[in-house]
Amino acid sequence: MTAAFNVTAPSPPGPTTPERGASSAGLVLIDVLLRDRDRMLDRIRAGHDLTAVMQAMVATIAITMAAAGAALGSYRGGIQIAYAAIKLPIVLLGAAALSAPALWAIGSALGRRSRLAQDLALVMVALARGALLVVACTPLVMVGRAVDLGYHHTILGVVAMFALAGGAATGMIWRGLAREAATGWRTAIAGFCVVFTLVGGQLSWALRPYLERPRAPEVPFLREVSGSLFDSVTGALQSARGIYRRDQAPLEESGQ
């Protein structure tokens, strides 16, 4: 007696498209960045597939900063959500593109071996790590809005959030160059931080506002240049303490 078995062979996996492969590789790189920084730094130092690293980090920065910008824009709501989601990725990616070569240039001037591609990848990886930290903290902005946290206190909280992310990014660059232990690496990091702060600060100031008062009747995409970023942070500190200049006094009905 024979038994017949109708065995259906498993279907072969579908073809791996370039888009699917790139997406999977990008997610793997982000996972490595979050879980094993030393492995990521070793990959950069060895120069292994730096193009894929750069592409993944640029995409990470663009997506996370858009999400963070939308969260900031939600404080005012309406079109400001879209405005901030567009502008915040431009600020970070623009600042990175303009200042990242400074790390290589300063290091080379001090006698460090030229590693332009590795330095650019290192900067983008560090900024992507900072961007991930920013987007992880953005729920705090939503909580602040839910509990009706004051406008100026919210600004100070956002500044602290970005300062924390900046510290994490700088730490990543420090760790990467410390492993190399090349001539002048500390000075190169210090010079890069100065350049990035100046470029990023000016670019972010030019593209403001991101966090707008809820009572604002109109929301401009860009605001007229007035004062400086330092003046804005100083004014927010004073306003959070209840000290207002006459031209910044809150409206009576809002209490802000």
Question: Keyphrases for this structure?
Answer:
about 260 residues, disordered N terminus, disordered C terminus, about 70% helix, globular, 9 helices, mainly alpha
Description of the structure:
With 256 residues, the chain is an all-alpha fold. It has one domain (33-248). Helices cover 69% and strands 0% of the residues. The chain contains 9 helices and no strands. It has helices spanning 18-35, 37-46, 50-73, 79-109, 116-137, 139-146, 151-180, 185-206, 229-240. The longest helix has 31 residues, at 79-109. The chain is globular, with a radius of gyration of 23 Å. It starts with 17 loop residues before the first helix and ends in a 16-residue tail after the last helix. Residues 1-19 and 249-256 have low confidence and may be disordered.
SSE layout and pairing:
Layout: H1 18-35, H2 37-46, H3 50-73, H4 79-109, H5 116-137, H6 139-146, H7 151-180, H8 185-206, H9 229-240
pLDDT below 50 for ≥5 consecutive residues: which ranges? 1-19, 249-256
Helix/strand structural class:
mainly alpha
Q: Round the mean pLDDT to the nearest integer and report it.
A: 81
Q: Using only CA atoms, what is the Rg?
A: 23 Å
Report the major sheet.
none
Give the domain tally: 1
Q: N-to-C terminal Cα separation, in Å?
A: 90 Å
Which word captures the global form?
A: globular
From N to C, what is the helix and strand string? HHHHHHHHH
Number of helical runs? 9
Strand content: under 5%
Give a short summary of the structure.
By secondary structure, this protein is mostly helical. It has nine helices and no strands.
